[in-house]
Amino acid sequence: MSEPLVLGIETSCDETGVGIVRGHTLLADAVATSVDEHARFGGVIPEVAARAHLEAMVPALRRACDEAGIALHDVDAIAVTSGPGLVGALLVGVAAAKALSLALDKPLYGVNHLAAHVAVDRLEHGPLPQPAIAMLVSGGHSSLLRVDDVAYAVTQLGQTLDDAAGEAFDKVARILGLGFPGGPAIDLAARAGDPAAIAFPRGLTAAHDLETHRFDYSFSGLKTAVARWVEHAERDGRSIPVADVAASFQEAVVDVLTRKALDACTREGIEHLIIGGGVAANSRLRALVTERAARVGVTVRIPAPRLCTDNGAMVASLGAHLVASGIAPSELAFPADSSMPIDVVRV
Ligand code: KG4
Ligand code: ZN
User: Fold this and answer.
1) Of 40, 39, 63, 37, nearest to 51 (Cα)?
2) Nearest ligand to the CA atom of 114
């Protein structure tokens, strides 16, 4: 039998993604984003995102089938993000996937969004090295995972206690007047700045924090420190050195992210690190993790930026791995679960 042809649907946040994968090969990746509709609010508005998914779903399905040169009834299985994410947004994808599964009489897999962020790397670099540590950093999550098999054995080592890494980028960009989404704007501004200009705090890295939160992150203290620094400078009548603030903030985030991810590799005795999520597009993160990983003998896999951000191909990729691993499909009555635990790969 040829490798399974799997359609994947993603609607957990503000991207409507429909991807089509055969085995490890990406055939189509249609993504529509409602990011512009949220820009003036400085963050994703759940109701606006859900409405946008409704409008984008059918056109995205059509685009993906055209791009892959297939008809819907050709697919062997359908996979959909069933959580975690915004519940109203998830519901649109789950309802669409259930309708397709019933109408086409194809098996359906309700899958975990975070595991899908890990599985997407198969499409770019081939079968996943396992066990691996995965660091997922986006606007909605900052997690360190141990992945023994992305089909069924994923455990969480740590996560953010407050803001996600991308959320911190977005909030600091707002403080600096750099627009939304903030990550790319800070990445760009920081290139002209000095990362050592301001010593911003490194959350949860003190010895006493490491005892209880070794693999957890915290970025809200850093965000507040940036806001205070800017306020003081303004009060003193100084102009804000935007490039230096951006570079120093970015350095604080990527220093902690890379340190903890590589510490997890060392302590768990694992030689492979996979990075995903929108923040994985950050140029300083990519450079620093590559340099530090080489020093401790860890290989790093980071998919291309367009596969790091939310898309349907990642869901299809996880679906293809589940089918190939002989995992049974989901019962059709599964719900959208906004707080789906990470150790549940498929519902
Ligand atoms: O994965 P993603 O597209 O959506 C979710 O949040 O799930 O990630 C979006 C986040 C935003 O917070 C954005 O500011 C951040 O990823 N981001 C970046 C960069 N590009 C996107 N953060 C830092 N540097 C970047 N180059
Ligand atoms: Zn995501």
Assistant:
1) 37
2) 2
- Closest C-alpha among 137, 159, 134 to residue 149: 134
Centre a 10 Å sphere on the Cβ of residue 230 and count the other Cβ atoms it contains. Answer: 18
165-187 per-position pLDDT tens digit: 999 999 999 999 998 889 999 99
The alpha carbon of 113 and the centre of ligand 2 are apart by a number of angstroms equal to: 6
Cβ of 159 below 6 Å from ligand 1? no
pTM above 0.85, yes or no: yes
- Ligand with an atom nearest the CA of residue 307: 1
Q: How many residues does the chain have?
A: 347
Q: Kindly state the tokens that stand for 42.
A: 């400085």
Identify which of 325, 319, 314, 221 has the alpha carbon closest to the alpha carbon of residue 274: 314
H helix and E strand count, the chain: 13, 10
User: pLDDT tens digits for 26-42?
Assistant: 999 999 998 888 877 77
Angle between the 165-175 and 220-235 helix axes, to the nearest 10 degrees?
Answer: 10
**Ligand 2 centroid to residue 274 C-alpha, Å:** 14
Domains of the chain: 5-120+311-324 (3.30.420.40), 130-303 (3.30.420.40)
Beta carbon of 163 within 6 Å of any ligand 1 atom: no
Q: Give the strand pairing for 142-149 and 77-83.
A: unpaired
From the alpha carbon of 166, which atom of ligand 1 is closest?
12
> For ligand 1, is residue 11 a contact (CB within 6 Å)?
no
**Which residues have C-beta within 8 Å of that of residue 208, sequence separation ≥ 6?**
none
Best mutation site among 86, 141, 169, 223 for ligand 1, i.e. most ligand atoms within 8 A of its Cβ?
A: 169
Ion ligand 2 residue ranges (Cβ < 5 Å): 138, 310
| Cα distance between residue 106 and residue 77, in whole Å | 6
